[in-house]
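Q: I'm building a small set of examples for a reading group on sequence design. Run inverse folding on the following structure and report the sequence directly after it, with nothing in between.
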C-alpha cells in the first residue's frame, strides 16, 4: 500500500523517514522508492542512515542488487505501517469536513452483478445526490479485494459466499442462480430444471474468476459431472447473444437484467435444487469511510427497506 502524505517542516522529518522506510521495504529497492515518492535517491539513503543511527539498530541490509530487511527492521515496519495508516485515516477524516471533501464514489463490481444492480438503484441515487459522481470499476472479486487494500476504491459489490476477515459488509440481496436458454430450447417446457438435465448441455460461461462459473464448476464436481463448456467470453452481452442463438445455455443471478428482459429470444428457469447466494457491499473495517461512501451505504439500506 502506498502511504504518501504531504507534510512540510523540520518537525516532520521523522514522518518522512518513516514513509521512505516503508516504501523501500515494500519495493525492495532504493531507486524505485525514490521514483515513487518523487525525491532524489541520495535523500532517501541519507534519511534511512540517520533513522538507523537514531534507533541504534540496522534496519536494512544493502548490496548492489537488492535490499533485505533485518529482524529489527521487520518489527519496526509493522509499527511504521500502522502509524502511516492511522495518519492517512486522520487526514482523510478531517478533509471530509472541509473544502477537500470528496464528491466521487469509487467502488468495484463484477460485470455479472453490475448489469442488473446499477439500473435498479442508479436513477434513484443520482436524483437524490446529483453532485456525486460514481466511478465503478468492473473487475473480479480478487481484484476488488486488492483494490480495497491499495485504496483505489472505497467499497466493492460482490457475492458474499464466504466471510472476509477485516471487512465490513452490508447485505444487498438474496437470490438463486437461474438457468438461461434460448426460447426454442426444450427447457422451455419445464418450470424448474434438474441438474440431471444439464449433463448433456453445452455451456457458455463468462471468462475469469466469476462467481457463476466457480459455483457451477463446484456443483458439477460434487455430482461427478464434467460440463461441456464451449466458450468463455469476457463480456456478458456476448454470453446472452450466444444463448439467444441457441449455441449453448448459461446462468444468471437475476432475471431483471435489461439485456434479458429486452430480448424475447431468451428464457430463464430456476433450478430444482436451488443454488442460493447473497450479494452485498464490503469495505475495510480499519479504513476511514468518506462521507460520500457512508451516505451511499445509508441510501442502499433505505433502498432495501422500500
Amino acid at each position: 500500500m502506498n502511504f504518501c502524505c504531504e507534510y512540510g517542516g523540520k518537525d516532520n522529518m521523522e514522518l518522512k523517514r518513516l514513509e521512505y522506510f516503508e516504501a523501500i521495504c515494500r519495493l525492495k529497492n532504493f531507486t524505485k522508492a525514490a521514483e515513487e515518492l518523487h525525491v532524489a535517491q541520495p535523500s532517501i539513503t541519507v534519511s534511512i542512515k540517520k533513522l538507523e543511527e537514531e534507533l541504534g539498530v540496522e534496519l536494512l541490509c544493502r548490496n548492489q542488487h537488492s535490499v533485505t530487511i533485518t529482524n529489527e527492521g521487520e518489527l519496526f515496519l509493522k509499527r511504521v505501517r500502522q502509524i502511516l495508516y492511522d495518519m492517512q485515516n486522520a487526514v482523510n477524516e478531517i478533509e471530509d469536513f472541509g473544502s477537500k471533501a470528496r464528491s466521487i464514489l469509487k467502488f468495484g463490481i463484477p460485470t455479472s452483478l453490475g448489469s442488473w444492480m446499477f439500473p435498479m438503484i442508479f436513477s434513484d441515487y443520482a436524483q437524490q445526490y446529483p453532485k456525486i459522481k460514481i466511478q465503478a470499476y468492473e473487475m473480479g472479486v480478487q481484484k476488488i479485494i486488492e483494490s480495497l487494500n491499495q485504496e483505489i476504491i472505497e467499497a466493492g459489490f460482490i457475492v458474499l459466499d464466504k466471510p472476509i476477515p477485516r471487512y465490513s459488509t452490508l447485505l444487498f440481496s438474496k437470490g438463486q442462480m437461474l438457468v438461461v436458454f434460448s426460447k426454442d430450447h426444450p427447457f422451455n417446457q419445464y418450470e424448474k430444471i434438474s441438474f440431471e438435465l444439464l449433463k448433456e448441455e453445452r455451456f457458455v460461461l463468462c471468462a475469469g474468476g466469476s462467481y457463476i462459473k466457480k459455483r457451477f464448476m463446484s456443483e458439477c464436481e460434487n455430482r461427478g459431472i464434467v460440463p461441456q463448456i464451449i466458450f468463455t467470453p469476457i463480456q456478458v452481452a456476448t454470453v446472452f447473444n450466444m444463448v439467444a442463438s441457441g449455441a449453448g445455455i448459461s446462468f444468471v443471478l437475476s432475471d431483471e437484467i435489461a439485456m434479458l428482459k429486452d430480448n424475447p429470444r431468451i428464457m430463464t428457469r430456476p433450478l430444482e435444487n436451488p443454488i442460493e447466494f447473497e450479494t452485498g457491499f464490503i469495505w475495510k473495517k480499519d479504513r476511514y469511510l468518506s462521507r460520500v461512501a457512508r451516505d451511499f451505504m445509508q441510501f442502499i439500506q433505505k433502498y432495501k427497506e422500500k
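The first helix runs from residue 13 to 27.
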